[in-house]
Structures are given as structure tokens and as C-alpha cells.
């Protein structure tokens, strides 16, 4: 059993939706990401950390929290969910799911560096967590794709895998699945960033075998039992960009859908270079190029490793220490 | 005195109803740890010490401070009922949620929402169900004030009744954030169990441990190897005792048999075991109200049973450890000044415990097969899918799945009623199992040592349980230097006991359904039901295989290849004199075998002669099959017989009732299917008869 740090315990108590399928009206509403960030900043300013809110320590800070306009009653209710949390932790542990919070030293450094305060407070995952800091090529695209694009994606993923480049994707139907599957078949390492159903995904035969072999890391910023939700799917896109040295868009519709908005978001925030494939052009991909995405002429690239290296952001920036709770 | 202690004392006095009541040593310390320090406390005190007072008072104080309700986890339904009533004396609203009060669940839920419940009593099974935790626990979980683990020795790997349900609870406990007070209580925990519990509660746990000696108990132990002598001894002893009590036995079968015997001897005794369901509460009440002399019980009459004036606990067979013995014998004399605790033991106990020990853990190959099967499935497997494809006994399958799913980390989990393989590796822990087996062996040796009576019996029990207060009692047979009473029984009763053990026929209730509808259709039925006019009637078997007197003869015959004439005579006598329903039988037939074609047929022919009825071999084995005893579960046993037999009945016998003979009955499938085929071919009623039923281990 991986004993959680007290900080992580508190962040879970504050932010985790427990249990996944009971109407929220019955329960204290967990902190939204923004609400958590506000609280974390407040703690940081006072030289405190989340664990200082645990148990009877809470009352030492309750007055100050109240003055800073925090809803004390709600915080107290959320922090009182220890029994419920311990049941969930036991269940997740049993299924092979680990938890990292922004307060953990082992939380992926890339996420903090690239996303700053937008980095999710909690990550649920299975498989090798260290892989999350090793970069790779992100591959994203629509759920419904043409056979041509399908062929392209599986070729690219297979070649990357054979050159030792991680494939990062979102685990959705279409481009995501094809990229992850062909990389895995070629013996490559895969990082899947899921919007829903982490608990379900890790027990399928293929995922389980890849996780056991150390070839697959699955993570999600949402509770492992969470069901599909379009908002969650949008919002986890940033992790695909943060985990990748560059992200290739295989197919996208202009002005519509998660692929498009994810790419635009990355371009605006400079999370990671956005590439578009040039073998099967489309209006959507052209439009992305107009907004700053780079054409990726695969036939001219001998080595994906070298290419990704040439794109990598200067190392000084990587050295910047980001203090985040 | 702090304010809390004053309040606490007031509650104690209210509850007990005496103005001068004081806390017992340890009670207040424990309450203060829970309420003032919000820490954890372990209470090891004998029953009757007042463990519930600790959490009643703590709950009261915590509720006043605005805390949420207390959750009590207890495996004992009976105890729960008592607790609900006791709590009311302190104006605490306690409720229990279990499968017998489902119609109140919605009301209880509403009360929880309105914060009107102070104590929620739950069984470990309940707590482990995901729907339950989500529906109920989520309503209070953001304000649980106190968690109480009753019978906490169950969470220990070394505990004498380890339960898988508790294993999960201990894992939840170890993940429980600090600041939630936890009280663990048990009446019996030796050092090893104590250390194990502390490991799960954390280092800062406060401990309260009290003396275990029971001053009102006079202990004695007697070795009697001959089962008939044991029965005769028991009869005389019970008749001489002017009070009611419990006779403990090891198996359900012995509970029935010994109770039957006592009734035959004019003692008002009733059997009590896990095979009985609703009657158990009535039986307990009958004993509590002294309406009967004794219950002959297995360990199913357990921890929650409380009768202050219980006068004796006699063990007809030795339990497997000192802890068990102490717990069971400790039920006598709780509220009276004099009570008796007598342990009988003998040769057969050793064999029974050896069997229990060697079958305690599922075999490695079975575990690995099941695991591999789940691993290779695409989307996991349901219980039923596993049963249909694996030739493993249902109870073994259940135990193995349970065993695997409580490992930490667990190699399998159950989700939406399917078993799934997790990414966790599974290493079969041979050392742990060997270690546990060695512990069990040494626990059994302790019992044998107790039987040797080399020191004060009460002191011996206390020392084995690591009780620092153990000392000589002054009233056991060793302290009083009493001579052994092994020959103290009536010769006439002994003779009757010999005869009683000799004729131990028992009923055979044939099956009324095929193992599933598909198989039913293959046998030519419409679904899984066997039509009423094609079922076998109630039958009899003459003995238990290998047991004295008849069962031993059957075993000899089976090995020697011929059943002797004594068995024919005994069978004929039983059928003619004690089996009234069988009067209508007009002919005799038997189950055929290709492996031993003569054994049963020869016996059946001779029995037919003795019964003056015609014999006709109406059944033929058309296909040889693997022996039925190698088939581990119902599905395999039933399908193994498909196409195995053919029935052919001459016209003269059609419509006439028949006696169907086999040597040994086990799963009853062979007799059920044979009767079904005979009746389909036009036989009248079919009465199954077997020489013996198979005993466990054979
Ligand atoms: Zn003594």
C-alpha cells in the first residue's frame, strides 16, 4: 500500500468527488479547481500547507480563513469526509490505482512547469508514474476518421514506438485508440490521459498486461469511477499537451469539437508545439496552420527523435522551480 | 475532575441506574482518549466488563460537542439487538441496518439525514458493499464522530476467527485520516493478536487490558476415547447438574446426533448450528428462559450469546485452541456464583482437527487455475461463468475468490458482479500458510496439554492468553486434587449408546432440479425442473461411511470387494421395521458400474432375497465416466451423468414401486438421475437406498 502524504489526503478531502454516483445535492460540494487554487495560494502566503487543515489543527486557522472569505462550514464538511475517503482509497488501492497531488514531490514536474496553476490538484493513475516526465509525441484527432488518416496515425505511432518515443494520447475512440494501440503493438511506451473510466480501463486485458509490463501509464484528473462528461474531456486535453514534447493533430474539424479547441488552447498558452499532418490535408488542419500550428511533412522526417529534440523548449525554462501546492 | 469526566459519570450512573456507580479501571482512560484526544483506543476486557459503556458514553459526549454519529461494526446480530435497547437508556438513538429490516431502510435514511441517529450498528458484510457505502455512509461520512470495531481480534491475521470481511475493514482503517477516534474492543487477544491489531490502529493507541479469570467457574477435563462411553458419561453428568447449559460439539452432524441421543435419554436438548436459520433465535430464547436443559451447539452459538445464569458448558469434543475454549467456556457463570466448565476429549478429536487444519487453505494449484482463468478472460467472469467452466467445489471457489480479493495488493476485484484481474502481481505465500498452519498445530498442542492437567486449569488458560493477572483459582479439579471421573457412567446407558451409534441411518432427500435449464433440456426435460412424477422419493442410507459399527463394515466391504451378510441383515431390518413409506415396494434394482460390476449388484440381489422381492437390473451403464467423486461441483456432477445410463423395464414391473440401491451416496446426483430415467421408462415410485453416506475427507 502506498501511504498517502497528509497533504495529499487533505487535497483529496477538499477536491475529490465522493462517492462518484450520489447526487451532489446530498453532499458537501467539493472545491472546484479555481477554488482550490485560491485556497492553495492563501496557504502558501502564510507558509502553511494543506495538512495544516487536518483534524483539530483546522480550528487554529478557521478565523483567518473566515476573514479571507472562505466558507468555513463547507470546508469543515469536506474535511470531515475521512471515513468515506478511506473506503474509496481502499478500493482504488485494491484496483491498482495510485494518487499524486500537487503537494507531492513525485507529481510530474512538466505539468507544474508548463501548466502552472492550471495543473490539476490530483492525478489518479496506474502504471509507471515516472514516465509522465519523459515527454513524447502526442497524437490527437477526431473520433470518426477516414481509413487514410487511420493508416497514417498507425504508421506514425508504430515508427515512433520503434524509435523509442513515447506516444501520448487521450484514450478516446478514433485517433487516440489507434495511435495507442499501434504503438503498444510495436512494443512502445504509451501514456494515456483519460477523461473518464480509469477504474474500468485498467482492468481490460490489454491495458492490464501493458501496465504490468511497464509499457503503459494511464492517468486521469477525475475520480476513477467518473463517467463521460464533455467538459472533463475538454479540460483534460491540456495534460496531453503538457505531457508531450509536441502534439500532432491528425484530423480536426474547424471551430468544432475537443480536438480543435485543445489545439487552439495550446497555441494560445504555448503549452507545446502543435503539428498538423500534411499527407491528408483538410479545412480544419489548414485553419490550425493559420493559427500557428506547424505543418509536419512526415515523408521528409528521418528521425522523430531528432525532430522532437529540435522543438524542445530551452532547458533553462525547464529549470525554473515552480512552487505550487 | 474535568468537566467531561463529570458529565461522563452522570451518563454512566443514568445508564446503570445507581447514583454511586464509578468507572471501572480503564473505562474513563479509554473515553478520554477518544473524546478529549480524538485518538485510538484498544480495549481487551472480558465480556461483562462494560465495553459498550465506553462507546455509549463517548458517543454521548462527542454528540454534545457537535460531532456526527458513531459507527459500530459488529459481526453479531444478536448483540446488535441488545445494544439498540441498552443505548435507549442513555437516550441514544441506535439503529441497525441489516437484511432483515430492509423495509425500514428508507426511514432510517431520513433520520440519518436529519441527524437523529446517534449510533449506527453495521455488520462487516454491510460495510463492504459498495452500494451501501455510497448510499448510507455518504450521508454521514462527512461527520462520523467515532468508529468502533467490535470483536477486533477478527482483523488480525493471527486471530482465531479471521474473517475476510474484517480484512477489508482493517485496510480501510489503515487509510483512515488521523483525527477520527477509533475504539477497538475484544474479549480475547493474546500478545500476538494484540500486536497485530496495534499495527493497524497505529502506534499511539491507548490500551486497556484486564484480567481474564472467571471466579465462578469450576473447570475440569476428562479423556474418554470410546464414543459410546462419552455419550453415557455426558448423560449422567447433565442429569446430575441442576441448571441449564451448553454442550459444544465440532460439527453440525454431531450437534444433531448428540442432541438426538440426549432426547432419547429423556434430556430436553436441542441441536444448534449454522445449518439452522430462523430457528436459531428461538433456540437461544428457549435456553435463556430455561425452557430447555441444553443446546448442543457448534461454534455457531457464538460471541453474542449472553445468558448470565448459564450453569454449565461441556465440550463433547475439544475445540481447536485455548482461545476458542476460553471464549466458549467463559459463557458459563457470568452472573451466578457457581458454574461448571468441562472439557471432554479423545482420539477422534485429533483426526477431526487434523482434517480441519489441512483443508483450511485452498490448494495452490486451484488458486492459480482460477486466477489464470480470470486473467485470460477478455472482460472478467461472473460467479456463474466460473462455476460452469471450472471443476471446483462451489464452496472452494467461493473461498478462493474471497481469499484472492482480500490480498493486499489484490490480484482480483469484483466490479458489477464480474471478477476482474488487476495489474497487481500475485505471489502465492507458501511461507505464510505454513506459518499459520504451524500456529494452529501449536494451538492444538496447547489444548492437549490442558487435558494433561499439570497445573491449575484457569491459570493455564490465562497464561496461554498472555493475561498478566493469571493465578491459581482454587476451585478447578487440579487445585482441588480431584480424581478423574472417566469411568463415571451408567453401564446400561453405555449399552444403549452402543446401539444408538450402531444404527445411524439418515434420510436421503433427492434433488428436484437439474443443475441448470440447459442441462435439463439435454436430459429431455422442459427446463431445470425435474417433473414431480419423475422425481425420486425420500430415501435412506444406513450409516456414515467409516464410522463405527455399520460404517466400518461398509468401508471393509468396499475395500474387500464384497459387502458381508451382516449388512444385508441390517439393511433388511431397517427397511422392514423402520421405513414405513417403503411398504409399497414390489421389486429391487441397483445402480450399475463398469469399474466394479458385481459389488453393488451382488449386494442388491442378496438384499432382494432377504426382503422376499424380485431383483431386476433395470439400469445399464452405457458409457463409462470419470468417477462421480472426482466431479467437484453440481454442474459437473450432473453433466457427468448425461448419457451414462439407460433404463429398461420389463412390462411386469411397469407402474410398480421399486427400491433403488447404491453403496455410497454423496452428491445424490446419481440416485436422482437414475430415478428420473426409471420413472420415465414407467417405473412406479422410486425409493433410493444406500449403505453409507460419505464423510468429509473421504
Ligand atoms: Zn485451579
Report on this model:
- The complex is a heterodimer of chains A (325) and B (698).
- The two termini of chain A are 24 Å apart.
- Chain A is globular and about 65 Å long.
- The mean pLDDT of chain A is 89.
- The longest helix of chain A is centred in the middle third of the chain and has 16 residues, at 147-162.
- Chain A is an alpha/beta fold.
- Chain A has helices at 6-15, 33-45, 58-67, 72-79, 82-95, 109-115, 147-162, 175-185, 198-201, 205-212, 230-243, 257-269, 283-290, 304-311, 315-319; strands at residues 98-101, 122-127, 137-140, 167-169, 190-193, 216-220, 246-249, 274-277, 294-296.
- In chain A, α7 packs parallel to α8 (175-185) and α11 crosses α12 (257-269).
- Chain A has a nine-stranded mixed sheet with strand order 1-2-6-5-4-3-7-8-9, with helices on both faces.
- By secondary structure, chain B is an alpha/beta fold.
- In chain B, α1 packs across α3.
- Chain B is globular, with a radius of gyration of 29 Å.
- The A-B interface holds A 1, 4, 6, 9, 13, 18-19, 21-22, 26-28, 54-56, 77-78, 80-87, 89-91, 93-96, 126-127, 199-200, 202-205, 208, 211-212 and B 38, 68, 71, 113, 130, 133-135, 137-139, 141-144, 147, 168, 171-180, 375-380, 405, 408-410, 413, 415, 420-425.
What percentage of residues of chain B falls in helices of 4 or more residues?
A: 40-55%
**CATH-defined topology of the largest domain in chain B:** Rossmann fold
Which ligands occur here? zinc ion
Q: First CA to last CA of chain A: what distance?
A: 24 Å
Q: CATH homologous superfamily name of the largest domain in chain B?
A: P-loop containing nucleotide triphosphate hydrolases
Largest sheet of chain B: 7 strands, parallel
CATH level 1 name of the largest domain in chain B: Alpha Beta
CATH architecture of the largest domain in chain B: 3-Layer(aba) Sandwich
The tally of beta strands of chain B, per DSSP, is: 22
Global structural class of chain B: alpha/beta
Q: Into which percentage range does the β-strand content of chain A fall?
A: 5-15%
